[in-house]
C-alpha cells in the first residue's frame, strides 16, 4: 500500500520497487481529451467530443463577440483614464477593425491612423446604425 504524496508526482511513481529500485517508474499516459471550442473567444479547451451535426458552441453576448459581429461599422468609443493630468476622458471614432477580450482596434478613414484601445478604459460604445446581435437560445429552467 503506497502513501499519497502531498505534491504532484509529475507522471512518475516516486516509491522504489524491485523493477525500479530508485523509484520513478513511468506511469501510464492518459489519453489526451479532444479539444472542443467552448469559450466565447473561440479558444480551444478540453471538452467532450461533439455528436455529428452538433454545433461546436454558441457565442455568448460578451462585448468582444458583439463587436466582432459589427466589423466594418463606424463606432464611437468613450474612454476615461484615471489620474491623467493631460486628459481624463477621450472619444475615439472610427471604423471597427476588430476586437478582442481586452482591446478594440479602430481605424480613422480620414487620417488612416489606427487606434488600439484597451477595454479597461472603455465606458461605453455608440453606433449610428443598427448593431448586429445574435439571439441567444433560451435555456430551460431547472
Topology:
Elements: E1 12-13, E2 25-26, E3 35-37, E4 44-46, H1 63-68, E5 74-80, E6 89-99, E7 103-107, E8 114-118, E9 122-127
Antiparallel strand pairs: 1-2, 3-4, 5-6, 5-9, 6-7, 7-8
Radius of gyration: 25 Å
Beta strands, count: 9
In percent, how helical is the residue content? under 10%
H/E order of the elements? EEEEHEEEEE
In DSSP terms (H or I, runs of 4 or more residues), the helix count works out at: 1
The first-to-last residue Cα distance is 44 Å
Structure commentary:
The model has no long low-confidence stretch (mean pLDDT 75). The longest helix is centred in the middle third of the chain and has 6 residues, at 63-68. The strands form three sheets. Strands 8-7-6-5-9 form a five-stranded antiparallel beta sheet. It has a two-stranded antiparallel sheet with strand order 1-2. The protein starts with 11 loop residues before the first strand and ends in a 15-residue tail after the last strand. It is built from one helix and nine strands. The protein has 142 residues and is mostly beta strands. It is extended, with a radius of gyration of 25 Å. It has one helix at residues 63-68, and strands at residues 12-13, 25-26, 35-37, 44-46, 74-80, 89-99, 103-107, 114-118, 122-127.
Amino acid at each position: 500500500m503506497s502513501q499519497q504524496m502531498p505534491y504532484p508526482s509529475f507522471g512518475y511513481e516516486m516509491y522504489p520497487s524491485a523493477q525500479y529500485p530508485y523509484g520513478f517508474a513511468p506511469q501510464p499516459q492518459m489519453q489526451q481529451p479532444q479539444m472542443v471550442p467552448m469559450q466565447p473567444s473561440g479558444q480551444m479547451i478540453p471538452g467532450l467530443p461533439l455528436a455529428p451535426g452538433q454545433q461546436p458552441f454558441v457565442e455568448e453576448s460578451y462585448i468582444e463577440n458583439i463587436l466582432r459581429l459589427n466589423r466594418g461599422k463606424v463606432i464611437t468609443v468613450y474612454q476615461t483614464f484615471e489620474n491623467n493630468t493631460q486628459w481624463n476622458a477621450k472619444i475615439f471614432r472610427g471604423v471597427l477593425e476588430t476586437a478582442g477580450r481586452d482591446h478594440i482596434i479602430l481605424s480613422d478613414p480620414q487620417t488612416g491612423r489606427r487606434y488600439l484601445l484597451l477595454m479597461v478604459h472603455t465606458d461605453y460604445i455608440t453606433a449610428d446604425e443598427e448593431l448586429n446581435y445574435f439571439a441567444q437560445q433560451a435555456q430551460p429552467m431547472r
